[in-house]
Protein 1
Amino acid sequence: MIVRKTLLTAAAAALVSAPAWALPGAAASHPFGPPSSTPNNTSNPGASRRSDAANDAIEDKASDNRKGNNGHHGNNQSSHGRSHKCKPHAVAYIASGTLEGEGLTLNKNANGTFTGTVKVDVLHTNHHAAGDKGAKKYTLENVHLVLAIPDADNDSSVEVDDLKAGDQVMLIGKISALAKKCPKTGSAATPTIRQIVFHPPATS
């Protein structure tokens, strides 16, 4: 009886002094020892129970997470979006003002369009033509004209020779532009005018 009590006392002392992971209950959860500090890598004893494909997938995911935390992917996406956005694109160009007498040389083409030059005192513009206010000479090619003016020379037809200084002019076309935050390089873009509308001077 004394021997049995002595054995029980020794066993209890051994259980108290043993580390938690070595106890029978812990061994069921961690049969290969205490949890690894890097449970997802293949050096973890638990990895031996997974297939090679599963271990590779875990490593790939961990690598992707590290890249994402460092901002690598985010920077690449940002650069790609910025490069695409900063390509020149055509926008509407509209300018209006009064016709100046000199510099008006419009020659009619076989298809009914006109080629030549016209000088305008630009008074109003849309956003993309704002830098062209003031006296500006436009070089034109294959432009359609709308001559909403009187027959000044009374020859029963309204032609370019009926235009005169002070007539109202509206120029409509396209111009290449970049987004606001894109770096501006090179010289300013030149508008391509496709239509000009002429009206008589405004009456007071």
Protein 2
Amino acid sequence: MSDTILRTENLSKSFGGLVATNNVSMNFERGQVHAIIGPNGAGKTTLINLLSGELPASDGRIFFKSRDITKFSPNRISRLGVGRSYQKTNIFPSFSCFENCWVGAQSRLSTSMRFFRPAKSLKEVTERTERALDLCGLNHQRDTIASSMSYGEQRQLEIGMMLATEPELLLLDEPLAGMGTEESKQVIELLRRLSKKHTLILIEHDMDAVFSIAERLTVMVNGRLLETGTVDEIRNSAAVQEAYLGDEEVH
């Protein structure tokens, strides 16, 4: 049975007079792919930034595995087992695939800022790096310089860097943005593989992709939660069709 790995209570974020996220209370269940959809300006990325510690909450609380992490830094949240990807690719272009993932792997060590480490620690980092490359499907490009890779492969590499931290929960902000059809298929397949052993919270505008991999969906409008349900429930929701799709049927 699934259980709650992350939850929010009355979570809000304001920027001056603008309320970007308004009184959001929701549960994310362990082992599920939970997609958050909504029009531009709905507050989706702000919510992800709050969950990852990138932004401080104006009000409300966030719990990861029942622990209050509301005021934790991004680094501390990462060390607890939460990975995060961004709308724009966030890699080291001049590094190889292996070196990029190695940076992610070593960041999880308690001695990550020490330049002289025991051989055992270096072995752990290397093993994490190898696992991440295998998981993200780029082991065959381990020595390839990141800047020479296709955009889709760079997005895979960013996910690999995140996997090198060995997270339980993945926060994915538009992982398919800017991709062509074939690249999107590869990343969708990667996310499908990852969902077997990880919890995924996904923001994505590609509705075909969302409906193909998500088990639960939440619709946001103007910073508020409109509705949460299964794919079929969201497809058939009159409120979602009216508020999000302008009375158009969800295909």
Protein 3
Amino acid sequence: MFLDKKIRKGKAALFLLFQTVGGVAGTALTHLMFWSETCTLFSVSDNVRRYAYFGEVIGTFILVLAILMLVKTKSKHIPMMVGFLVGRQLMATSSTMFANPQVTIARMLTSSASGIRPVDGLVFIVMQVIGALLAYAVYRLVFSKLHITVE
């Protein structure tokens, strides 16, 4: 949305900040719910997730392009469609569909099965940025000039 000039730099920075804080808080709350298993609010993951990097580019590309298209068409079903898409891609991508740096950061802070080593997480974040920028480029190239009327 920032690249498309729909939100300003300051608002984009706040979105990034609050999403990351929310993800970290969600990790802490989850660990509290399962305190008898974790006995900690945070732990640095040692789960190896290498070799799934390209899947992260593809998953992020599909997710971001779908969101851009849904916003362009003023769909009233964005939350439901994104939920279905993410749910399906959890099973269909080799990376288990992190597709969001905030989620990746949160997953670096858990030793649960969903965790990711920080070194792999940083590469995942780079792959997510690449996937998002590719999706935005395709959107601008193919869809941004279309005038879509919604009834």
